[in-house]
Write a structure and sequence with these properties.
Blueprint lengths: L3 E6 L9 H9 L6 E6 L5 H7 L4 E4 L16 H7 L3 E4 L2 H6 L4 H13 L3 E6 L3 H5 L3 H12 L9 E5 L13 H19 L1 H5 L1 E5 L4 H8 L6 E4 L6 H13 L1
Parallel strand pairs: 1-2, 1-8, 2-3, 3-4, 4-5, 5-6, 6-7, 7-8
Helix pairs in contact: 1-11, 5-7, 7-8, 10-11
The structure holds 1,3-dihydroxyacetonephosphate.
């Protein structure tokens, strides 16, 4: 039985005052079936970990190395030291803005494991790829190339985030979400056996309180990776509640 996961990705948003949103979330009763995670910007990770109560804290990216001459980068070990328990890797914004490849994402995922943390590996097709009927090919290639061989339910989470649904208010149909999530599940089981059944698959892209319940009823949707709606405690709490009730 997979526990559910409500994960918030604050992206490059949040100053110290934003920690009040986290404090508000932490004051709510813990859901019974749902793990909660917030990935604030790097500047807030350590402080967030100090006020987050039962909510786990994660990073949004890391370097492949543990330390060294890499100006501006951060290692998984540093994130762990600051109190993080997970790190997002291969977000489409990293793949686009920083040219990250599947091979790099895979190496980062292994670096995250080496620091004792969980890798949240993101996959997603562009609108052009979806319209060309290439979605499953793209997702299959990204999944294969970005996921290291030793993935388990404890060290890995997969996030399916169609690029065209991120920050746009558009979401795929529920049938389209089911098609991709069922496809990812089948690929994980084919490659990892029973471990493939234990790996959680999150949906991400314009998840809001208003659409959360219908998305969480879709097969193989084990939770969400939420951007904009994770910035406000009331919105994210409504999504947590919808997931826990699903
Ligand atoms: P939005 O929820 O703002 O569409 O962002 C999704 C996302 O990219 C989370 O990683």
């Amino acid at each position: 039985m997979r526990r559910k996961l409500a994960a918030g990705n604050w992206k490059m948003n949040g100053l110290k005052a934003s920690l009040a949103e986290l404090t508000a979330l932490a004051a709510a009763p813990a859901p019974s079936q749902t793990d909660r995670l917030i990935c604030p910007p790097l500047t807030l990770v350590a402080q967030a970990a100090g006020v987050s109560g039962g909510i786990a804290i994660g990073g949004q990216d890391c370097h492949t190395a543990t330390s060294g001459a890499h100006t501006g980068d951060v290692s998984a070990e540093m994130l762990a030291d600051a109190g993080a328990t997970s790190v997002i890797v291969g977000h489409s914004e990293r793949r686009e803005d920083h040219g990250e490849t599947d091979a790099l994402v895979r190496t980062k995922a292994e670096a995250i494991w080496a620091a004792g943390l969980t890798s949240i590996i993101c996959l997603g097709e562009s609108l052009a790829q979806r319209e060309a009927g290439e979605t499953l090919d793209v997702i299959g290639t990204q999944l294969e190339g970005s996921t290291p061989d030793a993935a388990t339910g404890a060290n890995t989470v997969i996030a399916y985030e169609p690029i065209w649904a991120i920050g746009t208010g558009l979401i795929p149909t529920l049938e389209q979400i089911a098609e991709v999530h069922d496809f990812i599940r089948a690929k994980l089981v084919a490659r990892f056996g029973e471990d493939g059944n234990a790996i959680r698959i999150l949906y991400g892209g314009s998840v809001k309180p208003s659409n959360a319940t219908e998305i969480f009823a879709v097969s193989n949707v084990d939770g969400a990776l939420v951007g904009g709606a994770s910035l406000k405690a009331t919105d994210f709490q409504a999504i947590i509640d919808a997931l826990d009730a699903a």
